[in-house]
Amino acid sequence: MEKRVFGNTGVKVPVIGQGTWQMESDDAEGAIRSLRAGLDLGLTHLDTAELYGQGRVEEALVSKAIAGRRDEVFLVSKVMPSNATRSGTVAACERSLKRLRTDRLDCYLLHWPGSHPLEGTVEAFEQLVTDGKIRSWGVSNFAVDELEEVLAIAGPKRIACNQVLYHLEERAIEHTVIPWCEAEGVAVVAYSPFGNGRFPKPSSTGGKVLASIAQARGVTPYQVALQFLVRGTSMFAIPKASDESHMRDNAKAASLKLTPEELRRIDAAFPRGDEPDELPSI
Ligand code: NAP
């Protein structure tokens, strides 16, 4: 499994990880089996949040998937903006640790920009680092002006990552978010890399290009899409797969190397369009 240094953390993290949103609606045994199979295959970047299933994903699924193998995992969770005061962030983190049955997170994110002052959230994150409860912290769904604000508060090399919506039909972050993150050494984590299940249809123009590349390379269109998304040096992706065969498919995407011509064909088939006024989120 290909790994890259995750932002300014100095820690190497697999380029393909695992998401867990909406897993509470899937068969629990199957989802846990899939997560553990993913860990076996090196998909050790595991993304969750207090929001997911109102804590049930952390408590009933992720905690079981990582039981007995915590040290293998780069475990990420997120605080809800409504909890992100100084004391609320610390309390939310402690609740997540309890549900996950662990003593630390590898990275803790503010789920999206909210109304509580960022100074308090950043202070809480730094306190949690000092206390050994988190190893690093980052943000999610932050546009460049919001990233600038965090940078001004926290100083350089503190924001580990920005987790943002990125898939073939939603490439808005390529305009300014990715360049900003690359310049500041912030990892970019692509969430909903398959459009939250709305993958390009095989009959569409883009779908046909993916299928033709996939067929020529003996892989699946999903693997081609994932590899396109992590082609940049600061990029990671966290597909969600409760189906173990999907998980195995995704793991193989890391070893696929697309040629410049294949990248050009995908780029042309899924034009990124103009930069929108607001950062898209799901
Ligand atoms: P996604 O990963 O884009 O798509 C998941 C869907 O694709 C599921 O239906 C899954 O099916 C299917 N799938 C996965 N691998 C496949 C494969 N190889 N072949 C065919 N189908 C495949 O959706 P997502 O859950 O929205 O995004 C991924 C993760 O990003 C989330 O789980 C979450 O951790 C994170 N996220 C973060 C935010 C944020 O605001 N920070 C927002 C959204 C998501 P099965 O499950 O049946 O295998």
Notable traits:
single chain; 282 residues; alpha/beta; 10 helices; 9 strands; 40% helix; globular; binds NADP nicotinamide-adenine-dinucleotide phosphate
Structure at a glance:
With 282 residues, this protein is of the alpha/beta class.
Description:
With 282 residues, this protein is α/β, with parallel strands linked by helices. The model has no long low-confidence stretch (mean pLDDT 97). Helix 7 packs across helix 8. The two termini are 28 Å apart. The strands form two sheets. Strands 3-4-5-6-7-8-9 form a seven-stranded parallel beta sheet. It has ten helices and nine strands. Helices cover 40% and strands 13% of the residues. The structure holds NADP nicotinamide-adenine-dinucleotide phosphate.
Task: Please write out the topology.
Blueprint: E1 3-5, E2 12-14, H1 28-40, E3 45-47, H2 56-66, E4 74-79, H3 86-100, E5 107-110, H4 118-130, E6 137-140, H5 144-154, E7 159-165, H6 177-184, E8 187-191, H7 205-217, H8 221-229, E9 235-237, H9 244-252, H10 260-269
Parallel strand pairs: 3-4, 4-5, 5-6, 6-7, 7-8, 8-9
Antiparallel strand pairs: 1-2
The structure holds NADP nicotinamide-adenine-dinucleotide phosphate.
Provide the structure class: alpha/beta
Report the bound ligands by name, code or SMILES.
NADP nicotinamide-adenine-dinucleotide phosphate
Q: Tally the beta strands.
A: 9
User: Mind telling me the C-alpha Rg?
Assistant: 18 Å
**Helical content (DSSP H or I, runs of 4+):** 25-40%
Whole-number average pLDDT?
97
Shape: globular
Estimated share of beta-strand residues? 5-15%
**N- to C-terminal distance:** 28 Å
> How are the strands of the largest sheet arranged?
3-4-5-6-7-8-9
- How many distinct helices? 10
